């Protein structure tokens, strides 16, 4: 590249900085990163997106108290959008352009709307592609297929896809699934071909190609950190609270879907299933009331926090904090009292008349 771009320059003979970049090309060149899962994110995309969101709520002039208040608002807003997106994904059905496709029907039931749209775009791009068999079954059980697209009379975007029908495994040269976690158009083309010719196992997406992070049920699981599992299976009291919250979320999601379907059912079916539901709820309440003891109903304590005892604000010799309004009111009272005291100190002279004394008093009041 250097020789082609700088043929008559000193850089063509070698440049230290370019040689340094070439030495570590496996860390930054996209060609060498096709085996790494990046979810389609660039190097600085995560930090830039986070900074853009934080700037909407935080300003440099905020103190520490305002920082935590606005940061809590930021988290609440992100949680609200996540919950709203999760609810819309479960309560709505995405638009399927090819309703006869079993692969798209399966993807619409499993993936979130955004991931389904990405898979549907890859599916629609398979129309102009042509597929041919490269070789029969090899020693390792893989069969090679070549997918290519005819464009302007020439082949373009040629990719080799290896398939193992026994394990429903597909491997493509483009490595889109390894980097993003979504099936590429070359793999979908081979799946459509095999499904149309009698391979029923290829008419749906294999389970090992469904990443849990892209599914509608992803929020039901507990995130595992680097120190180990913190899910509902833990025995400590703090982690037990997480289990209760996860079970509550799963139960409410199931009941919400049932309530939506019952509300749209006919009157006859509604009365029938409502009777069954009431019966099941009564039996469950009776059974659970016997198994759940009073100790199980207690609130789970939060460790690491202690309540600070209230102290007398005047015990340490300091007065309590006063607001600006209270200070202003007290200042006006002091001024008024000083004026009244000065007015009382004014005595009329023997040579003056009462009217003169009243006029002097009025002048003093006006001055204050």
UniProtKB/TrEMBL annotation:
<dbReference type="GO" id="GO:0006355">
    <property type="term" value="P:regulation of DNA-templated transcription"/>
</dbReference>
<feature type="region of interest" description="Disordered">
    <location>
        <begin position="303"/>
        <end position="368"/>
    </location>
</feature>
<comment type="similarity">
    <text>Belongs to the FHY3/FAR1 family.</text>
</comment>
<dbReference type="GO" id="GO:0005634">
    <property type="term" value="C:nucleus"/>
</dbReference>
<keyword id="KW-0862">Zinc</keyword>
<feature type="compositionally biased region" description="Basic and acidic residues">
    <location>
        <begin position="307"/>
        <end position="328"/>
    </location>
</feature>
<feature type="compositionally biased region" description="Polar residues">
    <location>
        <begin position="344"/>
        <end position="353"/>
    </location>
</feature>
<protein>
    <recommendedName>
        <fullName>Protein FAR1-RELATED SEQUENCE</fullName>
    </recommendedName>
</protein>
<dbReference type="GO" id="GO:0008270">
    <property type="term" value="F:zinc ion binding"/>
</dbReference>
<feature type="domain" description="SWIM-type">
    <location>
        <begin position="161"/>
        <end position="195"/>
    </location>
</feature>
<dbReference type="InterPro" id="IPR007527">
    <property type="entry name" value="Znf_SWIM"/>
</dbReference>
<keyword id="KW-0539">Nucleus</keyword>
<dbReference type="Pfam" id="PF04434">
    <property type="entry name" value="SWIM"/>
</dbReference>
<keyword id="KW-0479">Metal-binding</keyword>
<dbReference type="InterPro" id="IPR031052">
    <property type="entry name" value="FHY3/FAR1"/>
</dbReference>
<comment type="function">
    <text>Putative transcription activator involved in regulating light control of development.</text>
</comment>
<keyword id="KW-0863">Zinc-finger</keyword>
């Amino acid at each position: 590249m250097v020789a082609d771009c700088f043929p008559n320059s000193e850089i063509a003979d070698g440049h230290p900085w370019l040689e340094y970049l070439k030495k570590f090309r496996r860390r930054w060149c996209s060609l060498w990163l096709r085996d790494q899962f990046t979810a389609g994110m660039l190097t600085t995309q995560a930090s830039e997106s986070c900074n853009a969101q934080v700037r909407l709520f935080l300003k440099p002039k905020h103190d520490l108290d305002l920082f935590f208040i606005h940061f809590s608002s930021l988290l609440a807003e992100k949680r609200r959008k996540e919950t709203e997106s999760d609810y819309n994904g479960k309560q709505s059905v995405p638009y399927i352009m090819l309703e006869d496709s079993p692969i798209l029907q399966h993807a619409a039931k499993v993936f979130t709307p955004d991931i389904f749209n990405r898979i549907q775009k890859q599916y629609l791009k398979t129309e102009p592609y042509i597929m041919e068999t490269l070789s029969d079954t090899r020693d390792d059980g893989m069969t090679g297929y070549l997918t290519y697209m005819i464009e302007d009379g020439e082949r373009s975007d040629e990719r080799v896809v290896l398939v193992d029908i026994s394990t429903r495994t597909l491997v493509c040269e483009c490595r889109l699934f390894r980097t993003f976690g979504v099936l590429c158009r070359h793999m979908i083309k081979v799946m459509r071909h095999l499904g149309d010719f009698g391979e029923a196992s290829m008419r749906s997406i294999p389970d090992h190609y469904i990443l849990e992070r892209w599914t509608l049920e992803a929020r039901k699981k507990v995130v595992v950190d680097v120190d180990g599992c913190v899910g509902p299976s833990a025995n400590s009291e703090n982690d037990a609270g997480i289990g209760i919250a996860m079970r509550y979320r799963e139960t409410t999601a199931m009941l919400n879907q049932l309530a939506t379907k019952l509300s749209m059912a006919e009157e006859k079916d509604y009365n029938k299933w409502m009777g069954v539901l009431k019966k099941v709820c009564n039996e469950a309440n009776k059974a659970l009331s016997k198994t759940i003891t009073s100790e199980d109903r207690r609130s789970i304590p939060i460790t690491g926090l202690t309540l600070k005892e209230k102290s007398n604000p005047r015990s340490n010799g300091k007065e309590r904090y006063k607001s600006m309004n209270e200070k202003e009111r007290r200042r006006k009272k002091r001024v008024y009292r000083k004026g009244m005291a000065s007015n009382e100190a004014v005595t009329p002279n023997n040579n003056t008349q009462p009217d003169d004394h009243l006029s002097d008093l009025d002048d003093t009041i006006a001055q204050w």
